[in-house]
Amino acid sequence: MPLTKILRLGLIHAAVAITLVPINSTLNRIMISELGMAATLVAVLVSLPYCFSPIQVWIGNYSDHHPLFGYRRTPYIALGLLLCAGGAALAPSAAFALAANPWPGLPISLLAFGAWGMGFNVATVAYLSLATDLAGEEHRARTVGIMWFILIVSVIVAGISIGRALQPYSPAALYRAFYITCGIALALGLGGLIGLERRGATALIGERRSFPAVLRTLGGNRQARLFFIYLVLLLIALLGQDLLLEPFAADVFGVPVRQTTEYTSIWGTALLVALLITSPLTRRIGKPGAALVGGLFAGAGLLVIALSGILHLKLIFIPALVIFGFGSGISTAANLALMLDMTMAGQVGVFLGAWGMADALARLIGTLLSGIVRDSVNALTKTVASGYVTVFLIEALALALSLVLLRRISVARFRTDATTVSELAALIGDAQSG
What we know:
mainly alpha; Growth Hormone, Chain: A; 15 helices
């Protein structure tokens, strides 16, 4: 696969992520710490988009068999990018409207976060399916590594730029930072997308299945079920802390807005270093082995972050972020490469839709868990740090459980199970049609 195509895939991947940076790295902190909203309410809004996650299976299956204008993935990616940028651009207005008056603010918030979430689900399954279509199995680890390298560099630059744009903080500066970020993301994504996929895709006649039949195919594969549960537990731990890291630094250590926004860059730099070693690491010990190493580092990072809150010791918080970012980088790259392997020819969109749904479900559960547990524990203990620490410890436990499941997952057994289930589904379909 040509390097230029991988780089362009990376631009699309980065564009979707960039639209999330100002929401998860800035707006959530402002809503909780500056506007005084309950973390539970913020968690509900931020996690609302992930309620749409089942659409990824449907979109993946539909795009496999229904090309639009001669393209199998491009129209879905473009639609997703537009919704992501539009929803993110509306998010600051929704936040201030909600803080001023819940009744008009709530519909605007639902529209903003809902549009972003729908775009995230549509774009993610479409561009990962395109990456799998374009990259042969032997190039997947390299493709994933480069895509994530571009993503993290973009996230680091976005984090630093937004932090500087918010010095000093003001609502006007926040609006400006969001609009510029969304405009750049849209330009990068559409620029990478144009001409990437060759026109002339045809529908896979004879392989179309109803949505319930697709779900039965997924559910009938034991390895697919295990991998789905594994991804949910792992990603709850890796992604669930997004809502709370910056408010944690603000509430426990008194860190200002600009500095907490730049924490994204610290975490991202560590993740970037990890990406550079993940490809040779997977060649040496395999993708499951690399995923295990990454998970162990990420778990250690979560435990040290919790310890910094218990001891009220800011000195160890930054090193903990570095450890967590390093482990997250190895784990993310290794598991994404493993995820691309857990597909079947002719059903790429279906399986990637299922893994995308696991990602979104984990974000939903992790974000709600973070907000509800933080508020509940703080209300019970009357201490600022206790709720945050409890969340980080729960996430470390989820990560440990995921690593136990990882030892039972096999790509070879997955493909054997998938072939058997597909053949059985075909026989049942023939019998019913006869």
